[in-house]
Amino acid sequence: MTTDQTPRVASYVRDTLSTGIAGLDDVLSGGLTKGRLYLLEGTPGAGKTTLALQFLLDGVAHGEKSLYVTLSESAEELRASAASHGWSLDGVELYELVNELGLDPESEQSILHPSEVELGETVREVIERVDALQPNRVVFDSLSELRLLAQNPLRYRRQILALKQLFAARGCTVFLLDDGTTDVQLHSIAHGVLLLEHTPREFGAGRRRLRVLKMRGVKARGGYHDFVLETGGIEVFPSLIAAEHHADFAPVTVTTGAPGLDLLLGGGLVRGTNTLLLGPSGAGKTTTAVRCMLAALERGEKATYFLFDEGRATLLARAAILGMDLQPHIADGDLSIAQIDPAELAPGEFACRVREAVERDGASCVVVDSLNAYIHAMPGEQFLILQMHELLTYLNQKGVTTLLVLGQHGVIGEVRSDIDLSYLSDGILLFRYFEAKGEVRTALSAVKSRVNAHERTIRELRLSRNGIQVGETLTDFEGVLSGLPAYGGKVAMLRSDTAE
Asked: How far apart are the first and last CA of the chain?
């Protein structure tokens, strides 16, 4: 007689509850599992209270009952904190376990005399309040005070288990707030653990990150996720995983708007690829990027320009002088220019802004100008290359035409870059200065293309009232890659009044 040893698979449908923060719900694969107890850890000022209030207010918005049990702050302080974000706590029950009477040495408030009276009285008070309100969502703030009152680890663990059983029996979804050090025993009791970090930087805003240390039965996104705490609450930026984002598109070649540049690139730019514009300051990288973007706008596409280095007004004025008026496209809503402050930027936030431009605004052309400021905003960021790899892979898989501007140090002679992104780029346009007939000119060459049979020639680039003009091949040009190009003088140069 044989027996079937195949394990039985039980069906399980997770009943989720939103945290009130869309990005955090994404990290948690839909939100929190209902009726469970969660631990929220972080140092003072990390954002625990703000996150907890958003969690409770989301419950109020969905017709649920919410309870905030506080040992560390008064109800008035909590209302003031909520008001700073423009929130009202109407609908959230605030319960102070320590009030003015509890601060009186002669008072019989047992919570302040754990050596004389069992801490169980604290739990009984919470039970009474929970039974009276029957809340769906509960926040207990904070465990640090409860740990002090318990006086020994065994007693503290017993009280946490008592609270867990209390809330579980009543179907409450609970956040326990703790600003102490990592407590492994407490982690084993909680259904899930979230860690909030706030790391100061020498200049600019401190970096805030969260990490899911534990989440039973949930495939949460691993690693750190950047978030910001501003007026209006917390916004979480889930780390980008390019493999999760695919779109069907035709990898067709499109014009750059400059015939000479199209020839150099082997026909133009290809959808679903990224091109790196590499060269010294002032060589024409931004103007070339604007010309390519304008061609996309003229085809009826939408575009987003992420501007790090110069002011928005300066970019628009310069483009208009060169015959590339961007204002009509901004007015039509086809072009969005996002002015980025690198001192306030987190890597995850930038990736999220790019995703919004593509998925929400429908941008099929994205320009990042420049990567230098983006890199300098994150000194010591060890995994910047990996983040750029995910971002560029995401854009390629979405069929976006991406232009990346990267300035090099130096003007004449040896030049160098802050970071090597050449292997991540599908195409590279190299800009170099050269001298001819007593005038400083710009040479342009396509040194890499993964998709087109590009020219391996060197052409002259000139900025004019019609944008950019790319001249004939400079056959007597030598030394461009060494940084000291020399021109023999047999091929005619572009004149400054040509095509103007």
From this structure: 94
